[in-house]
Amino acid sequence: MAKKPATKLPSAPATKRAIAVQPNLHQEGHETQKYGEIVKLPNGLSEDVCKKSVALLNQCLADTITLRDMYKKHHWQVVGPTFNQLHLMYDQHYEGQVLLVDILAERVQLLGGISLAMAADIAEVTRIPRPPRGREPAAVQIRRLAEAHELIIVAAREAASAVDEAGDDGSNDVFVSNVLRTNELQVWFLTEHLVAASPVAT
Ligand SMILES: [Fe+2]
């Protein structure tokens, strides 16, 4: 028996195929969710509770991003007899802050909020004083870092109580187990460099 010829499906004209795979780089900029708005998710928390937690988390996020970046600045600019030790410790602490940034930002998103992200927005929101662009002595670097840590620690304790009272246990855990514990530990490592016998003390 003669073999039936295979049915040929009609193909799209060449120009249409080309259009379908051509990236469209002329996308209009528009927001699908405004900063401050909450998308209600089925997490058993009211919109009001999520909104308040998101505001506290975003403040902590802005301060944490600033502290993270201050660690990198000081990692690059440190000088003196303890250069290597501080250079390495600053980077270890930087990595710890990087982890916190992601935990905080994703906590904001999973509560239905919008996390802060860009440097210009962080600069407007953070409460940590801006250091000079230039280089400072190691002891001053450490003092600036310790003050930034303390600001975050005090705020994290207050935020932990506030979200706990509102019933947001997950955010309470982030403020206590992640933010508070990491910052307390880093303060210890940092400030032990400022004892009188230390070569970095002034
Ligand atoms: Fe480095």
UniProtKB/TrEMBL annotation:
PROSITE patterns: DPS_1 (PS00818). Signal peptide: none annotated. This is DNA starvation/stationary phase protection protein. InterPro entries: DPS_DNA-bd (IPR002177), DPS_DNA-bd_CS (IPR023188), Ferritin-like (IPR012347), Ferritin-like_SF (IPR009078), Ferritin_DPS_dom (IPR008331). Residues 55-195 form the Ferritin/DPS domain. Belongs to the Dps family.
